Structure formats: C-alpha cells, structure tokens
Amino acid sequence: MNDFIAARSQMALSLGFHIVFSCIGMVMPFFMAVAHFYWLRTNDVVYRNITKAWSKGVAIFFATGAVSGTVLSFELGLLWPEFMKHAGPIFGMPFSLEGTAFFIEAIALGFFLYGWGRFNKWFHWFTGVVVGVSGLVSGILVVAANAWMNSPAGFDYVNGQYLNIDPIHAMFNDAWFSQALHMCIAAFAATGFAVAGIHALMILKKKNVRFHMQSFRIAAVFACVAALLQPLSGDISAKDVAKRQPAKLAAMEAHFHTEAAAPLIVGGIPDSKAKEVKYALKLPGMLSFMVHSDFHTPVTGLDKIPEQDQPPVAITHYAFQVMVGLGMLMLAISLCYFVAIWKKRSWLQNNWLLRLFVLATPMGFIAVEAGWTVTEVGRQPWIINGIMRTADAVTPMPGIVYSFYIFTAVYISLSLIVTFLLYRQIKMVDKLYDVSPSF
Amino acid sequence: MIYVVIAYLWAAILLYILLGGADFGAGIIELFTSSKNKQYTRTTMYQAIGPVWEANHMWLIIAIVVLFVGFPEIYTTISTHLHIPLVIMLFGIIARGTAFTFRHYDAVVDNMQKVYNKIFVYSSFVTPFFLGVIAASAVSGRIDTGAGDFLSAYIFSWLNWFSITVGFFTVAICGYLAAIFIIGETKDNNSRIRFIRKAKQMNLAAVVFGALVFWAAHSEDIPLDEWLFGNAVGVIALIAALLSLVLLWYLLLKKGKVYIIRVLAGFQVTMILLAITLRHYPNIVILKGGQYLSLMEHAGQEKTIWSLAVALLLGSIFILPALFYLIYSFQKNKGQWH
C-alpha cells in the first residue's frame, strides 16, 4: 500500500466511522423528544424510561461522534494540506457555522442529560429538541461543504489561482440541497431501522415487551416514513448528478457507452477493460427515463470521459447497487408496516413482520456507507471536481501507511467497545427500567 | 473585520486553555491522587465537569476552524510539519472523551471501570502535553519548510527540549487550574485541605517546569527572555500574574471566596498567554531561518475573513448566553443531582 492509498483509506475510514455516530447523534434526539413528549403528556412511566434509556445511548454515541469529528477537522489538514490551503477559505463558511451549531448541540445536551428534575419540565423537553435540531443543522452544513467538492462554486479558477472568493455562494453550491436532503433522510431511515430492529429482537425474545414495543413503534414510524421518502430524494439526486457529474453517474450505472434509450443496468460485473457489464439485468430505456424523464434521450457514457478523469467503475457501481437494493428492501418493509397499521392490525401481532425489522437492523447503515462510497469514489480522481486532483492534494509526509494502521486499530477497538456498551445497556433494561414484571 | 477574527482566535485559544485545561487537569489530578482518595476525587470532579465538558472542548474546534478558514497557510504548515504530535494529541482526545463518557454510561459497573479510569487519566496527561509541544514548536523556529530529509522535516520540528518542557509546563498549568477549581466544589474541610495541597503541588510543578522552559530555551538559542521581557506590556502582564498569584494564596489560606480565587487563577493564565503572544503579534508561527507566518499577511481573501467574522459574531449571540446559563445553573445547585 502506498502513502496516497493509505491517506485515502484513512480518510475513508475516519469518515465512514464518523458518519454512523453523527447520524445516530442527530436522529436519536428526535426519537427521544417524542418519547419524552408522551411521558409529559400521558404520565406513562414507560415513556420516561424509554427516554432515559435512549439518552444514555445518545450520550455514548454523541461523545464518540464529537471526538471523531474533532479528529476529522484536523485530518483534513494532516492528510490533504494542499487541498485545505486553497479550499479552506472558499468552503469554510459551512464549517464556521457548523462550529456554532455543534456548540449549541453540546450545550443543549448538557442541559438535557443532567437536567432531569432540575428545570421546568417543558424547558427540559425543549433542550432535547434543540439537541436534535442543532445536530441536524450541523449535518446539513457539513454535507454542504462536501457538496462543494462535487460542485465547486464561489470562486474563479484562473491559471491555477483561486480568485474572487465568495464563501456564501460556495456554501449554496448546486449540489448542497440534493445531497443534504438525501443524507438527512438516510440518517433517519438508518437510525430508525437500527433502533426498531434492536427493539423488535427484544420483543421476539419476550423481554420487557411493553418497554420494547413502545420504543419500537416510535423508531419504526420515523424509519418507515424516511424509507418512503428516500426514493424521491434519490431521484432528485440522480438527475442532479447526471447534470453536474456525468462521469460519476456513468460509473454508478456502469454505463460505458453513450447511447440513446440507455438501459438501466441492475447488478452485474463491470469489466473496465472490455467496457461491458457481464451477467447484468438490463432494463431498456430506463436510465434515459430516470435521468432525463424521457426514454430516448442519450445519456453520457464513460466513453465521453477522458481515461485519466474516470472514477473507478466497479466499486462505484457495486456500492450504488447495494445502496439502491437495500433502499428498495427498506421501502418494501415500510409499505408492509403501513398496511399493518392502517388495514391489517393483525399483522402487528405476527412475528414475521418483527422478524423483517430484525433483519433490517443493519441495512440502513450499510446503505449509508455504500451511498457515501458512491459519492466519494465516484468523484475520483478529483478532490475538487474538475479543479484539483486528489493525488495533488496529499501530504508530502511519508509513512502515512503506519498512521492508517494505527487509526484502523483505534477505530476497530472503539467500535467494539461501543457495541459492547450498547449490549450491556440493553441487557440492563430488565433491572433499570422494567415497571411491568407481569408482562 | 480581520481584527474580529483574530480576537476570536485568541479568545478561543484562551478559553480552551482555561476550560479545556481545567478539564484535562481533572484527569491529571486523578492520576496523582493516592488510591484511597481516588474515588472521592473522581466523584467530585465528575460532578464539576460532567455537564460542561463537551462544551469546553468546542473551543478547540472553533480555534481550528478559524485557522483553516481564515489562515489556511498557517493551518497547513502546522499540520504538515507537526503531523506526528498532532496525531498523538488526537488519539489522546479520542481516548479521553470516550473513556470519560463510557465510564459514566456503562450500565454495568465492574472491572471495565478500571480500564476506563486508566485510559482517562493517562490520556488526560498526554493530550495537554502534546498541545504544549505543538504550541511551543510553532514558535520555536524549528519548523523547516525546505527540509529534505524525514527527520528534520517531521521529527526535529517538534522534538527538542524547549517543546518538551513547555509540554510539561502545560500539564502542570492544567492540573493547577483544575485543583483551584475543585477547591470550590468540595463540601468538607478535609477534602478542601487535600485539594489545596494538590493546588500547591501543581503550582510548584508549574514553577519548576517554567524554570526548565527558560533553561531549555537558553540552551537551544530561543530568545524566550527577550520575547517575554522585551516589551513593557509583557513585563506588566507577568508582574500582574505574579501579584495575583500571591493574592490567590493569601485568600486561599484565609478561606476567601472561591470565585475570586478562580478568577485570579484564570487571570494568571490569561496574562501568561498575553505575554507570550503579544510580542510576536501578528506572527504566530516562526519558521527556521527567522521567517514568520503572520495573521495579517497570511490571512485569506477579504470576503472570506468578512464572512468568517460574521459567522463568529452570529454564533456568539447564540452560544454565549446559552453557555453562561448552562454553567450558571449547574453551579447554582451543585451536588443536587446524581
């Protein structure tokens, strides 16, 4: 492994780690706020216990997300100094605003976690909502900064110089909305399915059924609404990417040849040398329709992109397939759940629906990681699309390989410890929160 | 507008040293507490920093964001040539933040607590040590942007006695700040006396390492005394720090108001930072061969600085009242929870 690949791997690892914790940290407060609201309105003590149990999880995830985010703010410079030297002043606006949002989040979390019984109960509830809202704002801002790398704006690039910098315009670049929307809904779906799945498993095991059932319902509604909306946001994203980054779209679809009535390629093994996809299901005209809302309009293929500007096709294509496939599965489960709520109440008593949710526990997060892979790998070889190559941005310091190994070890151990802590939290529900031993 | 940005950068660094420093100090004191008093120390500290520790560390993020948005060349020079101490500091930050949270939120209390404690106290030591090393290296004139070989480009930029002694000095300052802070949190006279003793020890350590910093600066040809005593403001600041230290110990032994004592300790650190930074202002990084990276000359374009300043000002409107209210409410009824 050379230093350049090591630097990219370390960045991918750090972001891939951080994205899970930040999704949970920004979505869980909303689940808590709902449970908390029910507790304040109904005085059903189970809801208070759910809120408290979840808030412990949030504290663990928030702290881990906060430190991994701090690490990222340094890693940008540690690994990509040449990029930060030029990009920092241009795309820094969302980061400086994000500092505020994150700060508010930390303050509100202090109020919320330590404020039980100390403040007016609605003020206390409100601080929990502030945690969620500021977390969401942070997320949107960070994604806006990433969107700028896909869709650079707010400066003139003249002879290698970055002139007439306009940070506000850079923040509201063409990609910020579609990317932020897609990411936020993904965060809700992923966290929702993960939480609902864990509670569904506990229901199936007949442990503290009331506690887990009420938790499950809150998480499942969020998850299912998000999973229903996500294909729509995905459609916006796909049309947007086709317009701004035809190379990325072509790699996602493994679309080698520009053609009219372009087929949508499902699955298959892309062969970059032979420029074809083996064993794939091809739906004629569907790609044209998806991108241009018309079955015949040609879609730019990789053949129109110079060889040295093409992203890796196989990884991007596989990651895209995984994301879409899992998204469809979650959509199907959501539809079942809504049918169950509105038409077939008996389904809710049936174990098969709960089993489906258990099965879906990791799906959302796998889809998030896959989607992140699509957007990052699909942008290669550029770090600033069309302006600066990733290889030109990397630090001159040798030995990044070792740094990558150590970071890998640290993040793996952290993941193991967090999983272990979560397991212990769930195991202790019996002792800490169960108020209905008869169940 | 550039002055607004610089003021925020300075304030963020100061607040990080004061609040984050006291926070690190809590772990440092725990490290140097005998095992029979450890549990009590831990509980007192936890009550004091639990609700605010996340917020304390935000100042570092503010400082780093101001640097990379407003002064990208300074940020990238530091992060390229001080890569190694920065990475070690980051591991310290990861280990400390997670261990602190995990030990409180682990649903089962068992031997894992020992693991969390160990990680917490050692990383509380390592992190401020390397922060000190990084700060010292930035002004030590050892960063060689033209170096060809690995050692002089990435190792000797920070591995020298001056940086190391400043690292220890930073650790002692953090421990001192924490001990002074904790004195006001104690409920009985015995523990009050114990923390006063801790504060004395940390104060002594700071003096000893401070002297070693001068020795190291002298032997490595860093004109530290000229920086500190070369201008009137620096001298006045240091004299003020010294006087307030005398006053602090007088009040402390007289059982004076804890808030005055805390303010005095904060004042000393502020004066030290002022004395160090003022002499070089607006330069904040000194490179090998006497070149400087300056906050004025190496700032971003005007529009960037303008929008950064607006973002910081806007942010303060939200952050400061909320933060004051947070600190105020948990100080007002301390000990009434958990």
Measured as a percent range, the helix fraction of chain A is over 70%
End-to-end C-alpha gap of chain A: 56 Å
Mean pLDDT of chain A: 88
In this structure, how is the largest beta sheet of chain A organized? 2 strands, antiparallel
Radius of gyration of chain A: 23 Å
Query: In percent, how much strand structure appears in the residues of chain B?
Result: under 5%
Order of helices and strands of chain A: HHHHEEHHHHEEEEHHHHHEEHHH
Task: Please tally the helical runs of chain B, counting DSSP H or I stretches of 4 or more residues.
Answer: 13
Fraction in helix of chain B: over 70%
Taken as a percent bin, the fraction of beta residues of chain A is 5-15%
What is the subunit organization of this protein? heterodimer
Tally of helical runs of chain A: 16
Q: In which order are the strands of the major sheet of chain A placed?
A: 1-2
Shape of chain A: globular
Going by helix content, strand content and strand pairing, the class of chain A is mainly alpha
Number of E strands of chain B = 2
Instruction: Indicate how many domains the architecture of chain B comprises.
Output: 1
Largest interface: A-B, 69 and 63 residues
Order of helices and strands of chain B: HHHHHHHHHHHHEEH
Parts with pLDDT < 50 across at least 5 consecutive residues of chain A: none
Q: What class would the helix/strand composition of chain B place it in?
A: mainly alpha
